[in-house]
Each structure stands twice: as C-alpha cells, then as structure tokens.
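hi!! sorry for the late reply, been swamped w classes. u asked for the two structures so here they r. pasted raw, havent cleaned anything up. first the sequence of the first protein and right below it the tokens
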Amino acid sequence: MRERGNHQPTQDCGYPTEDPPVEFEIARRLFQDSPHGSLIGLELVDLGSDFVVSKVAYRPELVGNPQTGYLHGGVITTIIDQSSGASVMLATGGQEGIVTLDLRIDHLRPAAPGRDVYARAECYRVGREVAFARCSAYQEDPAYPFATSISAFMRLRDEVAQNG
C-alpha cells in the first residue's frame, strides 16, 4: 500500500515528471480537454499499466452544501467518470473515442470537508464493443473509499477510423 497522501508521479511511477511516458500525456490531455474536468481542476497524478489516479483539490466553489462543506455530488461523479474513462482509453491504446454507457456509483459516506479527493480507476475488461472499469474515490487512504463505482464504455473504433 502507498504511503498516506503520497500521489506524486515521480515517486510512484519511477519516471521523471519532465519526461512522462506517452500514456501519461494521453490521460493528462483527456482531463485538460474536458471543459468540465478543467473547470473543477481535475488533474492526473499517477498511472500504471492497469490504473489511473486523479485528484480534485478542495475549493469552496465546489461545495454543494455550504452548511456542511461537503463537495457537490457532480464533482464526485466527474472525477469517477473521467478517471474511469481515462483507464479505458489507456487500455485501448488511446486511439479511439469512448462514451459512457453505464455508471453506477455507490456513495459510502460523504467526503470530509476541506480535503482533496482522489480517484483510482482501472479498466478490467476490454471487449469488442464495450470496455469495463471500476473506481474508488478516497481522500488520504485508498483503503478507505467514500465512493466506489463500476462503469461501461462504448468503444468508438469505427467512427474514429472513418473520421480520422
């Protein structure tokens, strides 16, 4: 298990940040090119051969309930959906489009106010037309998630090949 709160790619992935692998650039571009992901500050912090870890820094403008300080559910949905999609894109080589077909999120408890949130997603099966991912959203400790998800993504291989 990782050291609590340690999500730096230079320490976890074994490559220097100034020369990341192509896969890291594919995933980072996916987050940066998403208007909603960009708006909430979604960033890629780590990846491996079978996973993606992303982060949204806690900010007051992302709070859904000012009385409790809990993040808006849409922020949690976005980090989970886009992280899961990034894991699928990496698993399929990053050369085809994908769209979310199904996203089930189990909210186990609220994320603690004032702390950044992370999502760790992995694509666990790639089929001819559909790929599947699972994700855990957590704060300091990945072993203590506040939400988990299972999702399915349609692969748009033919459309990308035709529209080139």
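now the second protein. again sequence first, tokens right under
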Amino acid sequence: MKIEVQAFINQIQDQTYLTDEYELPTPDPFVADGILAQLKPAIDKAIEKQALASFSVLTEYAGEPVKVTLETGIVNLPLQYIKKVNQFFELDDQAEVNLYLYVTSPLINRSNMRIDLIGTVASFEESAAANWTKVVDLLTKDLEAVVIGSQAPKEEPVEKKAPAKKKAAPKKMATAKKKAPAKKTTAKKTATQKTTTKKTTTKKKTTKKAD
C-alpha cells in the first residue's frame, strides 16, 4: 500500500483516518494479550480496508500512565508529529505505508517512548498470524521494560542552581589631575636707596691781625 505524501498529510490533518482510544484498568497479569484484545479487531479491519488508522489503549502501571498504540504511517513518528513528515519526503513522493507499535510511558526509557516497526501494511494481511506474533513479542518486551522501570530507584530532581552573578568590575575612581603647585610670586623688593646729602661744612677763615 503506497500513498502520496501530500495525500497522507491531508488525511491526517483533516482527521479522515480511522482512530479510537480505549481506557483499560491495569491488566493483571501485566501482559500483551489483554491490551491487544482491544486493538487487534480494529487494526485488522483497517488493514482490510487499506485505510490509515491509529488505535490506542490507555492504561497505567505503578501509578504511571502507559499508552500502547498501533498506527499506520510512512515514517516512524506518531501522527501527532505530522508537521515533520515533509522533512523526510518530497510532497509528491509515493511512500510505503507501514504499521508501527508505539509504547509511551515515563517508565519505559528516558525518552518516554519505544517505537517498533511491524512491517508494511501491504504484506501484513498475507502473513497476519506471523505479524501478530511479532506484535505480541515486541509488546511483551516493552511491557517488561515498563515493569523494570517501575522498580528502578527514582532519581531525585536536581535543583538547578541559579547562575552566579558576575561581580561588577570595581569602578575606577576618577583621579583628579594634580595641579602643578602654584608658583610663589615673590615680589622683589626694590631697595630704596637712601640719598644722603652731604653737608658741606664751610670752614671759617681766621685772619690774623697784624701786630
């Protein structure tokens, strides 16, 4: 089964594909059969019609949600990421439609999702029994990973420390330019010369009288 990429995008965006979601109490035992009992009839019908489809079972384990989805698509991305499809194909390309198994849970791995390719929709019907065995085997491993994840010690969230504020560089003090010392203006004292007037002493001449 092939489909033009643009036609595939249109059907998903217009929600003209087969879809449903079933809620299920935690299966006891927590195995694939109880979950697939809900999904198998719906997927068989979609494949018979060669129709695009997405069917999910929503349950929980150890208080955490577990979502199992069987979905047709042209790339191993859930249909909710339809806007990214054109990153892998040209819009006028003819792409093969595959069946994918998605298991979503915070317990399964760090990315919270496991993706498995089952095979092409075109070949699924030809070997339906073998393909459903493959689905059971893969889902069993995924559910075992969920159980193991529930038993792992929970990591305490690391408190993010606020980045240390950079100390502001000390402001440079404006250094006042030193003024050159003012030159002392010493007024030269002009010596006042004393003008001494010499007194002219006039000697009196004594004239001796003649005897």
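hope this helps!! also noticed smth abt the second:
Helices lie at 5-13, 32-49, 121-124, 128-151.
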